Amino acid sequence: MTTHTPVSLYGFLTPRPGHADELRELLLGLVGPSREHAGSLQYHLHEQEDGRFFLYEVWRSREDLDRHNATPLLQAFMAELPRHMEGAPEAYSGAMRSPYPADVA
């Protein structure tokens, strides 16, 4: 039996002035396909009052997250991202230590 430790990835993305619509479109384009990738437990996009975007993902394991990051979809997104971002993403990742519901993980 394989044991998985869920991994979360979360952070803020600040659009360049005049690029909020483009960045929102790029980010929204990731939601559906990413939720369909093996090991995706949660994938959410939020828009803050200050104009930043907050992305929250939970993956069944680091391996699942790595496979997701290697997809052509993510590679294309990462290549396009700098055109629409002010600075680098403020990103965090970590192993989830609180129990995840067994019927989801």
UniProtKB/TrEMBL annotation:
It holds the Pfam family ABM. InterPro entries: ABM_dom (IPR007138), Dimeric_a/b-barrel (IPR011008). Keywords: Monooxygenase, Oxidoreductase. Residues 7-96 form the ABM domain. GO terms for molecular function: monooxygenase activity. It comes from the Bacteria. The keyword Endoplasmic reticulum does not apply. This is Quinol monooxygenase YgiN. It comes from Nonomuraea roseoviolacea subsp. carminata.
